[in-house]
Amino acid sequence: MKLKALIVDDEVNARQALFNLLKMYCPDIEVVGEAGGVKEGYAQVAALKPELVFLDIRLNDGTGFDMLRKTTGNDYRVIFVTAYDQYALNAIRMSAVDYLLKPINPTELVQAVEKAVDLIHHDDAFKTKIQVLEDHLSPVSGQAKRIILNTANSIHVVDINNIIRCESDENYTYIITTDDQSILVSKTLKEFDELLTPSGFCRVHQSHLVNMYQISSYEKGPGGMIIMKNKDKVPVSGRRKDYFLKSLDLLT
After folding, report:
1. 216 by DSSP, 3-state: which?
2. Phi and psi (nearest 5°) for 35?
């Protein structure tokens, strides 16, 4: 049985391109409708009851979030389709929502659809993820940014300021927080480096990423040793020492 899908994008050419890709690479998806904006998208969701919505963030009469709020209570999975810049992409990734970057790569489309099919009707955390994403894209003054951490058994919503450090364990990463949690996430440290460096984190070692605002002291040496506020000790590699010290100077 095919999965019913709706495409919501304010660009006609973008809707047609996605329709063609789905027809070519995702035979289990049936596109039952298209919409160019919030009002039209809301009407299509109510009338067609799609199980999957491909949703652009910027629409001709609002945003994709406006449509999500209007269709609260409808049971469908969302894949964002966006041409957003790197800042917004980091916000999307920190919120752990599914997305496709324009122009759409067929392989990434297939992977996103397969993941969506697996999670249809089973992602109770979706509303939380959307709220976190909205917080990043339209932050309230003084509000701490949050990140969604998916583990094998649950999801954690963590204020970035409350992350002390991240430690690599091959293809996994331990996230150590101020409330003594050690959260194991199936993402590499490199991914967290890319996500968190703009928020005051520094990669000081192949296996360590630290929150610069959670540093208590630094012991000098060939590389040196960082003492975190929770008393954890983190080594600094020799080749990253200069970068770390320059980053530390910028905070003072």
Report:
1. strand
2. -150, 150
Question: What element of type H or E holds 147?
Answer: strand 146-150
Q: Which two tokens stand for residue 241?
A: 């020492």
For helices 126-137 and 86-94, the axis angle rounded to 10 degrees is 150
Residue 226 has pLDDT above 80, yes or no: yes
Provide the H-helix boundaries in 120-187: 126-137
Q: What is the pLDDT of residues 103-153, one digit of tens each?
A: 999 999 999 998 887 766 556 677 778 778 877 776 565 566 899 998 878
Q: Which two tokens stand for residue 108?
A: 């990434």
pLDDT at 33: 96
Residue type, 213: Y
Q: Has this prediction a pTM greater than 0.85?
A: no
Q: What is d(CA 212, CA 197) in angstroms, rounded to the nearest whole number?
A: 10
CA distance 81 to 103: 9
Cα(52)–Cα(68) distance, integer angstroms = 12
Instruction: State the first-to-last Cα distance of the chain, in angstroms, to the nearest integer.
Output: 61
Q: Look up residue 13 and give its two tokens.
A: 């050419």
Phi, psi of 30 (to 5 degrees): -110, 115
